[in-house]
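The protein record quoted in full:
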Amino acid sequence: MVVRPSLKLLSPDQINNIHQYSIRILEDTGLKVASERALKIFSKSDAVRIKNDVVYIQRELVDQSIQTAPPNIEILKKTVIMRFTWVKNRARRHGLESV
C-alpha cells in the first residue's frame, strides 16, 4: 500500500474568492504591460481592451484559457534539475540534482 500524503491549503470557497477577485483585477484594474510584443499579442483578442499600455482582460477570455489549459504542466529550473508536475490540482516534485 502506497501512502500519498496530501495538503490542502485553501478551501473551495477560498479558491473561488481568489478567482473572483483576480477576475475583478484583470477586468477593472488591468495589468501594466511593458512589452510591445505582448501588447501586440493582446491586441489581437476581442476580449481585451488596451489603454496606455494597461491591458484589461474580460472574464470570458480567462474562463476560456482555464478550460483549454493543459492538464499537466512541468516546471523546470535551469541551474538545478528539479522538476515539478502539476496534475489535476496536485503538484508532484521529482528528484533534485545539481547541474
